[in-house]
């Protein structure tokens, strides 16, 4: 099974084959997601909410990302592994941005990076791409800017905002991005953008007309989420199953049902006598 590459992304768009992408944050989940045949695994900075217990992605650091990215990379053989560039890791200077993108590749063993923004990151995307690092863009609801956007809400609903996003998508393509995540925008706008660029669009809350879809794996599995956005479909309810399993264990410990005879080790009678 050979590794999915950016060339496969391009081909899948040309052939009209939808691209399926999910997040993962650790080794065991990464091996399972890879085994499912998913095309790309994003180690998203949604790590902050999904795994680290923050209420936004803003506190996530480069070191946090690399730590989890390495674990995921060790578990993945076939999917493309994409490392998310965290807050402020690609804003201070072009040099710092290229170096941080490079760290996600060299230390995190990613095959591509993702960063948020449109026209304001075009030069950065060019510089990172020029270093031989594939870049995935991210437009619409960009969670690192949540404090500026004034909350998690649908973007690009009026004509002016929609035109701005369409232009940003074209600029990202020109800058060398190999794909663009479209988050929380009207499906009609996602369709226009998808038809206007030759690189694949990967939607999350952006409708069925995108070239691919991405979801946070914890959301799809119904794990530990207090809040489920409208665009999430739950394919399992692991939260309930995990609480159920832990409480069965607790009950069996309290009632001395666990461990059972099949879970214990024995010693010879004779040896036992010697210690008395
Ligand atoms: O961090 C993340 O998981 C993401 C995806 C939702 C696109 O950026
Ligand atoms: Na992200």
Assembly state? single chain
Helix content range of the residues, please? 40-55%
- How do the helices and strands follow one another from N- to C-terminus? HEHEHHEHEHEHHEHEEHHH
Strand order of the largest sheet: 1-2-3-4-5-6-7-8
Beta-strand portion reads 5-15%
Unreliable runs, pLDDT <50, ≥5 residues?
Answer: none
CATH architecture annotation name of the largest domain? Alpha-Beta Barrel
Any overview of this molecule?
There is one protein chain. This protein is of the alpha/beta class. It has 2 domains: 231 residues, Alpha-Beta Barrel (TIM Barrel), CATH 3.20.20; 35 residues, no CATH class. The protein has an 8-stranded parallel beta barrel, surrounded by 7 helices. α2 packs across α4. The longest helix is centred in the middle third of the chain and has 17 residues. The chain is elongated. The model has no long low-confidence stretch (mean pLDDT 97). The structure holds 3-methyl-2-oxobutanoic acid and sodium ion (NA). 3-methyl-2-oxobutanoic acid binds next to loops. The site of sodium ion (NA) has 6 residues, from loops. Homodecamer; pentamer of dimers. Its EC number is 2.1.2.11.
